[in-house]
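Hi R.,

Here are the chain sequences for the assembly we discussed:
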Amino acid sequence: MSQVSYYPGCSLHATARDYQESIDGVAALLGLELKEVEDWNCCGATAAHSINHDLSLGLVARNLHLAEKAGLDLVVPCALCFHELKMGEKALTRDGWSKAPQFPFEGRIKIWDLLTFLAQDEWLEKFKAKVVKPLTDLKAVCYYGCQVARPPAVTGHPAPENPLEMEKVAEACGVQVLDWSHKTDCCGASHSIPRPDLLHKLVGDLYDRALETGARAVIVSCQMCQANLDMYQTEISQARGREYSLPIIYFTELMGAAAGLKETRTWMGRHFVDPRPVVGVAS
Amino acid sequence: MTSNESGWQVDYSYLKEVQAGSGVELAGCYQCRKCSNGCPVAFAMDLRPEQLVKLILLGDRERVEGSHTVWICASCQTCLTRCPNDIDIPRLADWLKEQYLAKGGTPPEPRTALFHQVFLKDVGRRGRVFEGGMMRDYYLKSGDLSVPTMIKNAKLGLAMFRKGRLALMPKGVKAKGEVKRLFKELGGKP
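And here is the predicted structure of the full complex:
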């Protein structure tokens, strides 16, 4: 059993329960123990860095401090939390930011986003050995959104314009992965409440491009992207005069489906657009 | 203040002020527009990112501060990733927003500002965000209580509840004092 620290973030305890459940299922399948950071707090998200820089870093400093005390590398499923934690890491270890000295952090642990962590050869080989039902009928595109890879000076990502981790995982699941131009375009999640008009344009364009490539589903690794692309399809269909019904699937759910985990049915049942028919999971 | 033959007034002090405050070096911008060409929300901006930078270089404080651009920025980091001069426009946008709110008054995108404020206030209460309570506060304060919005939100809320994705009770950190201290010391009342 390998152990890592785990920072779920606020939404994996609530609206992104499906993501959390699928992560738990896949971790158990692979023999990975996720030890939740003791008493973690919200990363501050877009709100904090938009209107209070120091508070944003202070909130992150507390989390990094708690994680470093636990001594294990830190794995983060939410792209936004990952990005904020990496911003904090840079500020505290490279830029000399020190306005929350009660939460020191020396940078002795590595911060991973969950997708990049699981796409390492070691874990991918373990996973391939568990695949019992390759999803060979599914044509899909991989959608990364903004925060996992950009900016590379903060995330350390080697290929921010063309990340390939999700493709590796999806192909291990047997999926026919299609190439497309919009894999790292922004979905505008932070605007979904105050400016839904922006969302209609950004997300609607993503649907159009995904459909043009022949995709029957979009694979994601970020619960903000998932919610943003999944929840508002009826509204976006009305706004754009085109009927959309495109399943938005977490890569961890696909791993569950390919490994024949029966819980996959429940996770996918929590979505707005039901992915089970295109994935070939009984509903 | 310097003026050239055309009478154009250039206020170099504004650039100094912005660079010192935000920590973002702007003088290296040579207007290649890579930022704007890749920006997913440039279509909704009144000033494109490279125009915003240029106006700061020229010291046009009024147009910069009155612009919707920094409020429309989605913080997607594409511009910074591609900028040949590593100009951190997302950080610049955040700094300008923070300065705007510190001065008081109604920001160019009041609902976006309110959403950030309500979110952060909710984090300050218990150290974690409670999506249900935060959304309630946002809609009450935004005044966006039109019938279509209410119906849309009621439908979404009900669907989330049915799918088991709506937390009904907030969860918080145990060490609330530590979080409250951060808010107090780092100016958590924007």
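DSSP finds 14 helices and eight strands in chain A. The mean pLDDT of chain A is 96.

Let me know if anything looks off.

Best,
T.
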